[in-house]
Amino acid sequence: MQPLLTSTDVRIPVGRYRWRICALLFFATTINYLDRQVLGLLAPQLQEALGWSELDYGRIVTAFQAAYALGFLGMGTLMDRLGTRLGYAVAVGIWSLAAMAHALARNALGFSFARFALGLGEAGNFPAALKTVAEWFPKRERALAVGIFNAGANVGAIVAPLTVPYIALTWGWPWAFLLTGALGLLWLGFWWQSYRPPADHPRLTSPELAYIRQDPPDPAVRVSWRQLAGERRAWAFALAKFLTDPVWWFYLYWLPKFLFETHGLTLDQIGWPLVVIYVVSDLGSIAGGWFSSFLLHRGWSVNAARKLTLLLCALAVLPIGLVARTDDLWTAVALISLATAAHQAWSANLFTLTTDLFPRPAVGSVVGMGGMAGAIGGMGVATAAGWILETTGSYFWLFGAASLAYLIGLALIQLCVPTVPPQPRPLPFNP
């Protein structure tokens, strides 16, 4: 009898409900990045109104990064234990209320407390989203699914400069935090109504469930931090995140200030350059996920497909080192756009690498470990950026370091994981 489907050839309609789940992940990530970018857009106005120094701003950003690191320490494990439905809801609820709480702050200390709470909640987004992708998509579609939901980061960054300046100039800056934070609470209603695990979902057809489960089943494992600390695979992900996540944080929090200080843009002028940058970034996220999936469909090994894509991304970032040397606004925008698109393509494949290297029950914890490493790196960069700009007033060294981070990260991945196996290998023991 002809089987219903195989892992290499599917000829019958299998349904597309999994892409609705992916859409929910996309919108959550959009809101996540919208909420965190409000501060960066309003930073010049808030610095003038509230009297912050560059060091004060660096400390406020560091407060978010510190909480993000602590949040990742627990959020990955929380998602593995509570499951994505409840765990994701808790995370989004925390960060939405924290985003709205910024409206109550009136000094650097108040903003630091609000940013800390925001970081704790937002740390849950990627562990929950990556675990959901691992549950709802076969290996052949995961990079594309990650690329799509990860594109929400750029959509949030696009929506923010188109809406936040208008809200702040029309009703005042507190309303920018209140209205953007409320979107997460709206998303929660859709998530709670729509999401169930695949095996329990009443709207998932049997063919689509079989399609989702086409890969060999993962072994049942319990994951501890002691296990991950001894895993070279986990360190490959964590070290790459430690080097490259801070670059993205730098873009989010300092690009509006860079354009304001270097090219003289004001709050009502800064929107379109940032829109261009993050639209291109969006395309990079989807293209990066598509490209490695395309190579897999063409018969490339998982190792070759992922690492070639990561190498191309690392090379595309190199020209960002020149951006502080150009006086032309749109040349700067072009260089930044290329770098941010390459970062998002890199990020989509780096996240997908966790599902290539680890069984599904461990993905949330591994992503949490990597996110914590990236946030720790971001703390250092936020503090260093504040100090460098306070003492030199130049962005040259910051963009120069950003240009090299990805090649170094890829070298560390290759050192820790010379070959990505065709299927995730189990952890060596269950404590």
TrEMBL record:
<feature type="transmembrane region" description="Helical">
    <location>
        <begin position="60"/>
        <end position="79"/>
    </location>
</feature>
<feature type="transmembrane region" description="Helical">
    <location>
        <begin position="275"/>
        <end position="296"/>
    </location>
</feature>
<feature type="transmembrane region" description="Helical">
    <location>
        <begin position="111"/>
        <end position="130"/>
    </location>
</feature>
<dbReference type="Pfam" id="PF07690">
    <property type="entry name" value="MFS_1"/>
</dbReference>
<feature type="transmembrane region" description="Helical">
    <location>
        <begin position="308"/>
        <end position="324"/>
    </location>
</feature>
<feature type="transmembrane region" description="Helical">
    <location>
        <begin position="363"/>
        <end position="389"/>
    </location>
</feature>
<feature type="transmembrane region" description="Helical">
    <location>
        <begin position="234"/>
        <end position="255"/>
    </location>
</feature>
<feature type="transmembrane region" description="Helical">
    <location>
        <begin position="17"/>
        <end position="34"/>
    </location>
</feature>
<keyword id="KW-0812">Transmembrane</keyword>
<dbReference type="InterPro" id="IPR011701">
    <property type="entry name" value="MFS"/>
</dbReference>
<dbReference type="InterPro" id="IPR020846">
    <property type="entry name" value="MFS_dom"/>
</dbReference>
<feature type="transmembrane region" description="Helical">
    <location>
        <begin position="173"/>
        <end position="192"/>
    </location>
</feature>
<feature type="transmembrane region" description="Helical">
    <location>
        <begin position="142"/>
        <end position="167"/>
    </location>
</feature>
<dbReference type="GO" id="GO:0016020">
    <property type="term" value="C:membrane"/>
</dbReference>
<feature type="domain" description="Major facilitator superfamily (MFS) profile">
    <location>
        <begin position="21"/>
        <end position="421"/>
    </location>
</feature>
<protein>
    <submittedName>
        <fullName>MFS transporter, ACS family, hexuronate transporter</fullName>
    </submittedName>
</protein>
<keyword id="KW-0472">Membrane</keyword>
<dbReference type="GO" id="GO:0015134">
    <property type="term" value="F:hexuronate transmembrane transporter activity"/>
</dbReference>
<dbReference type="InterPro" id="IPR050382">
    <property type="entry name" value="MFS_Na/Anion_cotransporter"/>
</dbReference>
<feature type="transmembrane region" description="Helical">
    <location>
        <begin position="86"/>
        <end position="105"/>
    </location>
</feature>
<keyword id="KW-1133">Transmembrane helix</keyword>
<dbReference type="InterPro" id="IPR036259">
    <property type="entry name" value="MFS_trans_sf"/>
</dbReference>
<feature type="transmembrane region" description="Helical">
    <location>
        <begin position="395"/>
        <end position="417"/>
    </location>
</feature>
